[in-house]
């Protein structure tokens, strides 16, 4: 019996612990939402594609150092061939070659000096990859603004629900007292009805808030690719100190655009530098190199070739001017971004200062409204004031607490928007 009792006790504890875990709210933090949202964003897959493209492009450019081989086969018939129309006594002149000619050969080429063009091409590909990655990071960063709005909106609703629950709890307690007083014929039935009506209004407000909360959870769940239950607890983030330094991907993007333009210019400059390569040809033809010998012969040709494309000098000066203009454009874009960002930071700093002042007065107001409500409750229970007077003071306290909560969340949101505009680092 003792053994069976221990087994049942053990099973009971397991079930009890499971129920406790099941009933616990799922908590979530702002940093987690920001990370999940970026990892879930469809464009994140493009990062791997960009990096793979860079790898293949660099491999293709490197093939310029590989031996270049070209195999050709040719059979032709021509209307005339070289011949001798004179006769020299005592000398047998060779017969003219056949008008049918055949040639099978392979050309070989090996680049020796590329004038820096291959290095310039590789640097251009690498800088372009960094540019594309930074463009994606800029797009990823815009998600943070949406997550901040949804997260702080959810916190605001969460706090408002707690206030409504406190008010409704207070009303329910007063309804029970009113019901007892009504049975004793101490109060009129209208007094009870007024309290019940206020309780219904509180429950209606809760339904509206829960509906808004459900919409927020669905939207946020889509961004972070998680199903958020209705009882999800949003952890209120700690206050952030203001950052004066702007550290955003847009700045790195502007700097990388300058690097990309410089690499474009280096590639254009390399086109005017002579290229040096080895070449060779080996073949089997009729006629071969000795066109007077009318038979199939093997042959080869080898040498070194200098290639200098003077036509690239035509656009050399304009290419240089274009690179200067493009760098100036990138610098202006960076300056414009810094200007707009500083304006946003100033705006958020003013918002933060405003809410700091409001929160101090909210604290005093809530304390006063709570004291007034407590006094009104005592007066109503003593019959000094009517239930309408008590309800008015109860609603005034609720409004004061709601304003305090709204200002507190807006204060935190302004801090995080300042943090967002200066550069969130996770």
Summarize the structure.
The chain is 65% helix and 12% strand.
Could you explain how this protein is built, in words?
The chain is an alpha+beta fold and 426 residues long. The chain is built from eight helices and six strands. Helix 4 packs antiparallel against helix 5. The longest helix is centred in the middle third of the chain and has 67 residues. It is rod-shaped.
Structural key phrases:
single chain, 426 residues, alpha+beta, four-stranded antiparallel β-sheet, two-stranded parallel ribbon, 8 helices, disordered N terminus
Q: What class do helices, strands and sheet pairing give?
A: alpha+beta
State the strand order across the main sheet: 2-3-5-6
Average predicted local confidence, pLDDT: 85
Number of helices: 8
Count the E strands: 6
Outline type: rod-shaped
Strand composition percent: 5-15%
What is the succession of H and E elements? HEHHEEHHEHEEHH
> Ranges with pLDDT <50 over ≥5 residues?
1-23
* N/C terminus separation: 58 Å
Topology:
Elements: H1 2-23, E1 27-28, H2 30-40, H3 44-62, E2 68-77, E3 100-113, H4 117-183, H5 189-224, E4 233-234, H6 249-270, E5 275-286, E6 297-307, H7 316-381, H8 387-422
